[in-house]
Amino acid sequence: MAKPTESDAEAAVRVLIEWAGDDPDREGLVDTPRRVARSYRELFRGYEEDPRSYLARTFEEVGGYDELVVLRDIRVVSFCEHHMLPVVGRAHVGYLPTRRVVGISKLARVVHGFARRLQIQEKLTADIAEAITDILEPQGVGVVIEAEHSCMTLRGVNTPGSTLITSRLTGALREDQRTREEFLRLARGP
Question: Is this prediction's pTM over 0.85?
Fold first, then answer.
């Protein structure tokens, strides 16, 4: 099956506008199908990249550093695969290195790469942790995501302000209580 074209996507948006009860040829909407298709290309760019590739370049000269590395408050923008509505929140990612580390911006890029897809938050959390585990081979990984799901806050059960929290802990961050508590404390912040 061939991938739909940009024109196909624009035609689909026109149909949705008509289905909603408006005229896609109205002055304010005439360029909307093109704009929506372009914005969706940006919002779903995670399908066009391999987030794991961001972890390929590592640094082994760490001066004996063997404590947790935690990057907090990484903005997450994803989309619920059930309703195609935004999921917006923050990710906190940490790992306990063995012999190498990765540039901190790469952790954010991994989060963004996996987030820009249709999915559930639980899978997003697991995918990020698995990629870091597989490539960096650390003693353990921790990922916590806190996000608001528009499918719950804008429609349906209508619960504005509710937040889903998911976590995936591996290795020492799961098995060693002190390390787990340290990661969770650092992820929570001040």
Answer: yes
